[in-house]
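Exercise 7b. Backbone tokens:
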């Protein structure tokens, strides 16, 4: 756990202490509400993540060799999943992004059993978009 970004450590500790799915679902909603809002111009087709059932927008920028992403979704639960994924990847380099395993991360959080196949595919699509942005730079 020591190699995790601080926000990921916080997420891991918070979600592992949750007593069941209902509490984790509430936590997801709270984490989704913490996402930094995207400007209307950022909610463009160019930033739309392909492969998600609900609309998910993602923007990323590299600062000092590390990637920082922001995103949002129309779906409240998806915003929460996106928030904990962003917590896991914030500040990573392009090579580190390649090694992230979405299903392992959500399993550590205690969320994998409740992830529908379409939500899991959506989170994998978001990670794929992050990797594409990082490799294009």
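Sequence design result:
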């Amino acid at each position: 756990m020591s190699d995790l970004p601080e926000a990921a450590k916080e997420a891991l500790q918070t979600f592992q202490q949750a007593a069941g799915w209902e509490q984790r679902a509430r936590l997801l909603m709270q984490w989704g509400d913490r996402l930094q809002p995207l400007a209307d111009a950022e909610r463009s087709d160019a930033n739309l993540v392909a492969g998600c059932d609900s609309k998910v927008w993602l923007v990323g920028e590299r600062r000092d060799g590390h990637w920082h992403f922001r995103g949002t979704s129309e779906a409240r639960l998806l915003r929460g999943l996106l928030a904990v994924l962003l917590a896991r990847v914030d500040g990573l380099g392009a090579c580190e992004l390649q090694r992230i395993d979405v299903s392992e991360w959500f399993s550590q959080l205690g969320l994998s059993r409740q992830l529908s196949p379409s939500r899991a595919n959506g989170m994998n699509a978001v990670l794929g978009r992050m990797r594409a942005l990082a490799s294009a730079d």
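Instructor comment: The two ends are 28 Å apart (CA to CA). The mean pLDDT is 92.
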